[in-house]
Amino acid sequence: MSRLNEILLARIANDGPISVADYMVECLLHPEYGYYSRRDPFGTAGDFTTAPEISQMFGELLGLWVAQCWIDRGQPASFTFAELGPGRGTLMADAWRATKGVPGFHAAANPVLVEASEHLRAVQQTTLAEIDVGWVTSIEELPEAPLFLLANEFFDALPIQQFIRHENGWAERLIGTGKDGLCFGQGSARHVPALEHRLGDTKSGDMVEICPAAHAVLQDVSDRINAHGGAALIVDYGDWHSLGDTLQALKSHETVDVLHQPGQADLTAHVDFEALALAAPDLSHSRLTPQGIFLQRLGIDQRAEVLARNLSGASLASHLAAHHRLTASDEMGTLFKALALYAPHSSPPPGFKS
Length: 354
Ligand code: SAH
Known about the structure:
Blueprint: H1 3-15, E1 18-19, H2 20-29, H3 35-38, H4 51-54, H5 56-72, E2 79-84, H6 90-98, H7 105-108, E3 109-114, H8 118-127, E4 134-136, E5 147-152, E6 161-166, E7 169-178, E8 181-186, E9 207-210, H9 212-228, E10 230-239, E11 248-251, E12 254-256, E13 266-268, E14 271-272, H10 273-278, E15 284-285, E16 289-290, H11 291-298, H12 300-308, H13 313-327, H14 332-335, E17 336-342
Parallel strand pairs: 2-3, 2-5, 3-4, 5-10, 10-14
Antiparallel strand pairs: 1-7, 6-7, 6-9, 7-8, 10-17, 11-12, 11-13, 15-17, 16-17
């Protein structure tokens, strides 16, 4: 039995069942045994691969997206270039290299990474050794300045709560203990104000998810962009309006039981993009756009062609496969979506249609 499993069983024995959100926080960020606290989970040898690890084109195009937004919003002389949950730091490295030629951009940018894991922070320090970047643990610590922000596969790692609709209210899905260890159960049904707006599109027995942590992050982003200007780009898997149980555990590129071996597998939930937009009512939001279409509008096909000219054999084949993987609708092209948030009364950022 893993050490974290024992810790959770003891906690539940003492305090009673825990929420899915509490479970996710412990599994992902427990200082000693949490998934992100102990390892570098990315890449083919890890448990999952993310877009910036698949091809340099992803970070390059997102970097140029930020540069174009900065230009369109009057080139503020000093701004925060933030990334939420930067993993290995690959996206920022590619974004920074790609924007080298944009006059004045590097001089005005203050790159800051928001990272909760000490372990991944050390990995990012190595990847970004050449760049003068800063780190903060949470978004409230970002400087008060115009904010241009990127978040790829960050929101899916934030803790969610799950609720099941009953005739007389919502019962929270909880994690308790049974004869075989950790098991799912339910609290008693109650009135949940945050789910009032889901009464119209759900019926008894349906499960819905909320992510209070995402709500708090978006409120902070919204306050900063409203006060100082800027824009935010969120790329993740999920949909406009989520319904059902989307919690999943991934280990060695395979789905595994969520309660089996806590801390040893990545835990994620689909992102409810509508909830993100609702958490920032003072900002405008773009249309939710499939990643493939978004990257194509930013010029991924042309960039892929330029890079292909210098490649041959196995490296050419892997470059072509990466391009396909990021954009094709049977790969990440449709499952992943992009959403931009920006100050009202301005046109949507690059890659989005009004
Ligand atoms: N964006 C990267 C990594 C995605 S994995 C990529 O695309 O490759 C999720 C990242 O978010 C990790 O860096 C993880 O340590 C970080 N993270 C998870 N929860 C966090 C939290 N509450 N606050 C800050 N960072 C967090």
